[in-house]
Amino acid sequence: MPKQHRTTHYNNMKYTYLTIILLILIGGCKPSEKLVEKQGTDQDVINFLFQDYMGEKPSASFIVIKDGEIKDCQSFGYADLENKIPATCETNYRLASVTKQFTAMGILVLIQQGKLNYKTKLNEVIAEFPDYGKEITVQHLMTHRSGLQDYSKLYPNDAEKQLVDKDVLNLLMAQDSLLFPANSKYEYSNSGYAVLAMIIERVSGKTFKEFMKDEIFEKIGMTNSTVYQKGLPIKNRAYGYKSNDSIYENIDQNTWSAILGDGGVYSSVNDYLHWDRSLYNESLVSTALLNDAFTTWEEHGKTEDNGYGFGWRIDIKNNRKYLMHAGSTTGFLNFSVRIPSEKIAVVIYTNTVDYGGLGRKAYFLASYYSEGKIPTPADVWLEKDIEENGLENLTTKFKELKGNPTKYDIVEKDLVSLGFSYLKKEPSKSLKILELVQTEFPNYFGGYFGLAQYYRTNGNHEKAVEYFKKVPELATSEEQNLIDYSEKMIKELSN
Questions:
Q1: What is the CB neighbour count within 10 angstroms for residue 270?
Q2: In the chain, where are the structural domains located?
Q3: Which of 4, 103, 136, 200 has the fewest C-beta atoms lying within 10 Å of its C-beta?
């Protein structure tokens, strides 16, 4: 087995939940028949989850926190391929949009200090901002309801200068209108979080990097964490990669990767332990402010629906609240989830853009360490069945899992991710999985988008256009990027 770096604290349970479930699903035997042979099954399944990161490849690190303690922390692959430095649980990854929970906390710290409030207007802090932004509040910025334009559409992707947050502010100040009136709708906005970083700097008198260090990281013991600044070293640093045939290409930096408020924190999975602990007490801000951060905000205030809080996506399933955020930037993909009712958090950081499905891995680990209280992602078992038994019983296996919703959680987008994972290496499997999603969930845009990408990749432009046309019909504003991409593809492939 390829070398892996591991810090683990397991319960000494001879017959684990995971072992028993795995035997039932893939062994077809009674739970008692081969327990002695399968005592290592829990690690076997974790290895299966992270098989793409094993060996001389870019890395993945994960941590499972339960009741404020580390239950498992492991790393696979290399943080620095050029220098052959293996990843560990202390490796610092660029968090991408997982940063947003820290930026939002910076605003809450200033509110706690009485220097801001939810209704503070953008123009009150940045007086030179044009009048078109006079109704934008810090609350609107935190909840993606500001209407600010997307900075990536205001600046060429191939421009030589690497932008920082102040440049984003200047780009926005050169505009004369919003995408929509402030607070009239939700639209995910990296621009808003870059502006929040500038607000933190204006109000605190410190750089964003200094503020995060002084007011958050040092106060709760996140001694390994920092904020990127070009030219300054980052200890235990991971570099970002993507595969180019059989070679891994270093793509650690691009035009947008030095913008801090929406994605510039570097941190390790071990440091997330201190962050998670701080979110159960008043180490940084009051319980009332924390509860506001963990609640969906809409036009008229807080709601108990799914949505977005302050730096957190909110998902409520089976009367249980999930607080989560994904992160994607050049060379890095990450995912964090907290389930306060079970006092469980799972974080996965990676330094490659080649593999998705981090959410499903995180939910699987959360399910295991909740001892089955949290449903386990059905698509993990579906993938394992495909790997071991092929596609012959795909639909039967899916219906079997779908028929037990208290035990297995079926998430459409994770099934699409599973389909995409086979797109290059085994396209026939990709097609069957994506067809299954489209058939079982005909009103979900993801299956159509997946099939469109499959047919585009395989040169059938007519079929690709047919499926791309379904995406704008079915997707919501939360998937605006995919809508825009689909419309672009329709034009290109129709010529």
A1: 22
A2: 1-374, 392-495
A3: 4
Give the relative orientation of helices 190-204 and 100-112 as an angle to the nearest 10 degrees. 40
The pLDDT tens digits of the residues spanning 311-344 come to: 999 999 888 999 999 999 999 999 999 999 999 9
Question: What is the structure's pLDDT at 42?
Answer: 78
Count of other CB atoms within 10 angstroms of residue 170: 12
Q: Determine the Cα–Cα distance for residues 2 and 72; give it in Å rounded to an integer.
A: 19
> Which residues are paired to 321 by β-bridges?
316
78 φ/ψ angles, rounded to the nearest 5 degrees: -120, 130
The residues, ordered by sequence, that sit 6+ positions from 204 with a Cβ below 8 Å of its Cβ are 110, 115, 211, 215
User: Do 322 and 329 meet the contact criterion of CB atoms below 8 Å apart?
Assistant: no
**In angstroms, rounded to a whole number, what is the distance separating the alpha carbons of residues 161 and 140?**
29
pLDDT at 1: 38
Please work out, in degrees rounded to the nearest 5, the angle formed at the alpha carbon of residue 391 by the alpha carbons of 385 and 396: 75
Q: Can you give the pLDDT at residue 196?
A: 98
Determine how β-strand 408-409 pairs with β-strand 376-377: parallel
* Strand, helix or coil for residue 19: helix
**Cα atoms in the Cβ-side hemisphere of radius 13 Å centred on 415:** 29
CB 180 within 8 A of CB 139: no
The class of domain 392-495 in CATH terms is mainly alpha
Which token pair is 453? 């990408």
80 pLDDT above the threshold of 60? yes
**Contact in structure between 308 and 97 (CB atoms under 8 Å):** no
Q: How does strand 85-86 pair with strand 78-80?
A: antiparallel
Alpha carbon 325 to chain centroid, angstroms: 5
Return the CATH class of domain 1-374. Answer: alpha beta
Q: Concatenated DSSP letters for 87-145? A: --TT-BEE-GGGGHHHHHHHHHHHHHTTS--TT-BHHHHSTTS-GGGTT-BHHHHHTT-
End-to-end, the C-alpha distance of the chain in Å comes to 50
